[in-house]
Every structure is written in C-alpha cells, then in structure tokens.
Amino acid sequence: MIKLFPYLTSNFLMNFGRVIPQAILTPILLEKGLDFSQIVIVQIAFTITILLFEFPSGILADIFSKAKVYIFSVFLLSISYAVVLLSSGIQMMIVAWVLYGISAAGQSSTMDLYFAEKLRNDESNLKRFYSIDQNTLLISSIISSIVGSFLYGIVGINIYKLSIIAIILSVVNALIFFPKDSFKTKNYAKTTNPLKDILKGVYGSLENWQIKIAVILIIITDIAITAFFNVWQMILINADFSPSYFGIIFIALQLANIVSNIIFSKIKSGNYIYYCCLSGIVIVAAMLLLFDNILLLIPLFFLPLFLFIYVAFLHTRLQKLMPEHLMSSIGSATGTLSALLSLATLGFISLTLQSFSPSTVLSFSLLIFCATSFTFILSARLRREVNI
C-alpha cells in the first residue's frame, strides 16, 4: 500500500508557503523598486538558474535519494523568501530568485516521480495520483492566495514570514514521515561511474521516438506556460484592474486548473485530446487580441483549462514510457530543455512588451506554441512511428 498522505502534506505546506505572495507578486516587486522590464529580468535569472541546476539535481536524485534532494530544495526555498523579506532592489531580488530557481530545480522530478515509478503500470492509479497531487497544490494555492491577499493589506511584506514558517513545517514533516525507502541510496552509487551510466541511459532512451516526441511536446508547452504566468498580472494592470482583485482572480485561475484535473482524471487517453486542447488555445489567443477591459478575464480563465489538460496527458504519457531507473534524470533533462526555451520566451516577452500590450504578447506566444506543437504532432504522425 502506497502511503501518499505524508508527501501530500509536505507538498501542501510547501506550496501554501510558496504561493502566499504570488497573487500579489507584481505589486510586491514594484514596491521593492522594480519596474516591469526588471521583473522580467528577475524571471530570466530564475530561468537560467533552473537551466543550470535541474539536470544535475535529477541525476543526484537517481544516484542518491529523491527524498533528500526534495527536502534540501524545499529548505532552500525558505532561504530565498528570507532574502526577499529582508532586502530590496533588483540585485537582491536576483539573488533571491536564483536561490528560488535552485529550489525549484531540486524539487522537480523527485518525489512525484518516486510515486509515479511505483504506479506506472496502472494507468488508472497513475492518473489518479497525478490528479490528486495537482489538486493538492491547487487547493493550497487557493487557500494561500486568500490568506496572502487579505494579509498583504494589513502586514505588507511581512506575509513572507508566514510563508517561511509553512515551508519549514513542510521540511520537518518530510524528515519525519516520508517513506523510509525514499531516503535510500540507489544501486547506481555503487557502480564505478554512475554519471556515465545515467547519461548513456538518457541518451539511449531519447533514441526511442515515442519518448522523444513526448519530451519535445512537453518542452514546447513552456512557451505558453512561461508567457501566461509572467504576463497575466501585467494584462490586468494594463486593463486598469486594482491589485485588490488579483487574489480573487488568482483563486478563479486555480479553480480552472482544478476543473482541468477533474476532466483529465475522467477521460481516457486519445489523440483527439491533443487536437482539441490546442484548438481551444488558438481560440483563446484570438480572444486576447479581440477583447479588452473586463472581457479579458474570459480568455485568461479558459487558457489554463485547455493548457493543463494537454500538459497532464503529456506528462503521464512520458511517465509510462520512461525507464524506471532513469525517471528523475529524463524528467530533469526535459526540465532543463524547457528552461532553455522558457529563457528564450522571456527574452521574446521582454522585447515585445516594449512595442505591444501584454495581452497581445501573450496571444502571439500562444499562437507560436500551437503552431510549433501542431507541426511536431503532424510530423510524428506522418512518420508513423508515434501514436499521437
């Protein structure tokens, strides 16, 4: 029997602490003395850090222990938030986001893949785990965004103190209650050259076209995800929305994500899902160009619905295809390449924001994402080597 509760509890507490400032992050960074273009620079620093650290962290997780890498990464998140709390200016914010990036790199492809590895041969339970895991994060995001939005008007930047407490509690829970075997060192550590073995295994796995196309499509999703998460608050500010509404809107976006996970858990895998989701995102991109003011909320709410159903099916597909002993390494290699594309996307956003509105920039990004994804899917179908 797989015990998920300790992991879900730690993930809930970690994400609760992480998200508390997120709903009002743009106003916080503006208060810290940054402008829109500098906020993008901070995000670029974050992305470069993930690019540098994600693959090494995945290798460490496969060689040593997924739990140890996860716990250290969560603790590092509390350090990054302490830097935000105690400092200001773009230099220190870059330092904070670099630490945040190392933390994010370490958390990815660790404990989630520990459980996916145990459930990979049971598609129903694997989808159920993915849905429960994602909904746990989303529910904690909703609660923390309510708390953050409410407390920010009262205590201001001191909301980061509550974040740090929640993150430390997550670490303590993980140290005490995580499964004992998740702390065990893998057999790779006893080989003469575990790094060489893993790199050879990853390269060999990517020669499989089923795995390769799944990895490519997951990487491409970062165009849409990066654009959405970095621009949606700018769209609202540009449309004269008061920051006091950001918390409510953030909650609505999380509810849309929960709905997407429910839909994902209820429907069977099929090629039509990919085409429907991408077509829906094209419609969202058109709405962003045509709508203004309060109507912009419509495409912003529908985008996560289509996008995260698409992402969920791609991730579970890859988890079923990856060799068990290389899951963290392949997952982190995918994350590293995603970070590289995310970095390019941030550069595109930074440049285009100088000439276009945030809603137009997001629309262009989504159209590029859909066109590229359709191209690879159709190319794979024509090769008749990949069933997607």
Fold blueprint:
Elements: H1 5-19, H2 25-31, H3 36-63, H4 66-86, H5 90-107, H6 111-119, H7 123-155, H8 159-177, H9 194-205, H10 209-238, H11 246-266, H12 271-290, H13 297-321, H14 327-352, H15 358-383
Helix pairs in contact: 1-7, 1-8, 3-4, 3-5, 3-14, 4-5, 4-8, 6-7, 7-11, 10-13, 10-14, 10-15, 11-13, 12-13, 12-15
Write the CATH architecture name: Up-down Bundle
Structural class: mainly alpha
Distance between the termini: 33 Å
Q: Which word captures the global form?
A: globular
Helical stretch count? Answer: 15
Whole-number tally of structural domains? 1
Q: Percent of residues in beta strands?
A: under 5%
CATH topology: Growth Hormone, Chain: A
The largest sheet is: none
Radius of gyration, taken over Cα atoms and rounded to an integer in Å: 20 Å
User: For the record, what CATH class applies?
Assistant: Mainly Alpha
- List SSEs in N-to-C order: HHHHHHHHHHHHHHH
What is the number of strand segments? 0
Provide a descriptive summary of the structure in words:
- This protein has helices at residues 5-19, 25-31, 36-63, 66-86, 90-107, 111-119, 123-155, 159-177, 194-205, 209-238, 246-266, 271-290, 297-321, 327-352, 358-383.
- It has 388 residues and is mainly alpha-helical.
- The chain has a single domain (5-178, 195-383), classed as MFS general substrate transporter like domains (Growth Hormone, Chain: A, Up-down Bundle), CATH 1.20.1250.
- It is globular, with a radius of gyration of 20 Å.
